[in-house]
Amino acid sequence: MKKILSLFFFISTFVVVTFLLFQDAESYMMTKLEEPGSLGIYSALSFVFLLSDILLPIPSSLIMILNGKLLGFMGGTLLSFIAGLTSSSIGYFLGRASKKYLDRFFKPKEIESANAFMDKYGKLSIALSRAIPILSETIAVMTGTTNITFKTFFSYSVIGHIVVSMVYAWVGAFASSLNGHVITVVVVIATLILSVVFGKITSKKLEKKTV
To answer: Binning pLDDT at 50, 70 and 90, where does residue 180 land?
Structure first.
């Protein structure tokens, strides 16, 4: 647990500090996105901004709602999903690249304990955290420092991002006045259900292979 708590504190602190240092970036990005222009230019800017969410204080929920408003439900969902998933994958590989350096600060038992903890709870946290700012970035990077494979991380990230992208695109396209807290609750519950179902399906497949 020491490794998990230490890394969580370190990474989340780094993300928060980055957000504070670049807090003016949020208004700049929204201004750029709201400037008149072609949908192609808007889509490119939206993709770049959402991709930067792993390191910069991007108003991702507002951008995803705007995607749904300007590109429609399907277009907004697709753009937000691809950009968000790519951003999370970058975070994972940042964590993976720093793993060998960070492990020097922990004892073998602490590393083993962290891997066991993430094996048990990490998959669900990957999916659920996609809807929560700061936690999303922190979990993505932290997962890369554990033994969880990219395939597993990617699979559960897909679940989280598809739910988040669909809900926000729907809000933008059809119900832009919906309360933000209500959106978060809907996203978390839907992601939880999908994660549990996905976990049971994959576990059954693994059981069949071992038989």
So the answer is: low
